[in-house]
Model the fold of this input.
Amino acid sequence: MKRSGSLFILALFLVMPAVSFGQSPREYVIYDGRDLRQGYGMGVNSSRGVHNWLKDRGNEFVMAYPRGQTWGAVLVTVGQPRPSPGERQSKNFSNFDTLVISMRGARGGERVDIGIKDRTDPDDGSETKKTVTLTREYSPYRFTLRDFVTADLQKLHVITEFVFRRNSACKIYVNFIKFE
Done:
């Protein structure tokens, strides 16, 4: 009797990762092309206060960065985006090594900066960012988390940010965000 109970517990343990929303201990999906994981929010802003350039198309989200701005940002946050560090929720991502984002540009050649921020980082653009140049086809872009030296991975608030730094319009698409 004891032996069969142990086998049952072992069998339950083996199927639990598959039952848990398709997540494995090595992968944590934030956005799967259809839904942003529960407990996360998104924010959008630009130098002129334009907030309507982020759209959900049901299988991807589209950032149509508007002309005439000097900067723009789309943020994926733990909880809802908050201006005050004391109000920001955070989560420990120190068990992960890599941020993976599947994205593409409308024309190819679009450039965007990718960053992350902890709950105490100021909103002044001083966080570490990595610049990528996109192609017209979806590709997974991989970012080593330890390269974002200004962010404390144990208390991340902005888990992915897309930062635009120019005054010309561009359009980029995202269909997957995950941590590995």
